Amino acid sequence: MVIVYGSKNSIKIKKNLGVNVCPNCGMNTEKVLAAEKQQFTVFYIPIFSHTLRKGLICPNCGMYKTLTNAEFKEMANN
Description:
By secondary structure, the protein is mostly beta strands. The protein has one helix spanning 69-77, and strands at 5-21, 28-42, 45-57, 64-66. The protein has one domain (5-77). The protein has a 4-stranded antiparallel beta sheet with strand order 1-2-3-4. The model has no long low-confidence stretch (mean pLDDT 90).
């Protein structure tokens, strides 16, 4: 019997934070507050997920600034 298993990462956008200058690429882009999760699958069906990191993403260059849970909750509620 063959068991097909694996994992995939997914990013869930929580909130758009407005236009700022990205320190990495120098472009005026809209910062995004997001959480990255890793989903484990069996026969291509997601079984459970695990949060890898939470932070700010620059949509232009893909730079990811990791935030603590307290910082993430504060930014999500404002």
